[in-house]
Amino acid sequence: QRLKAAVHYTVGCLCQEVEEDKDVQFSKQSIAAISEITFRQCVSVGKIVKWCFLILCRHAKRTTVNTEDVKLLARRSNSLLRYITQKSEELASSNMEQKEKKKKKSSAAKGERTPGEQEAAVTENEDSNMA
Length: 131
Fold this sequence. Notes:
By secondary structure, the chain is an all-alpha fold. The protein is built from five helices and no strands.
């Protein structure tokens, strides 16, 4: 129900934009009809995508859908494929940064120094020895 309400709200906003741009009016009934058609179409496409993923995973003898599966299904739409690739790379980069932060925190908690901190300490020792 919440998803259906979100679709209805979004369709209403889009209709409002069209009304402003094209100087036309949408009745509440027409907005409701467009919302219902949109929702049903999304459900239908969702079921198709679900089956495609199941078939891909079975074919690959896996139970997990991965990024490459999603890219494979999106390959016919260049803009969608670019968008998915970009988001995938952003997520991978973000995950790597989080892993690095966790590694630094666990090293600091254990009293260990990161390679950069070790290098700075060696340089500091060399500077104090020269003085």
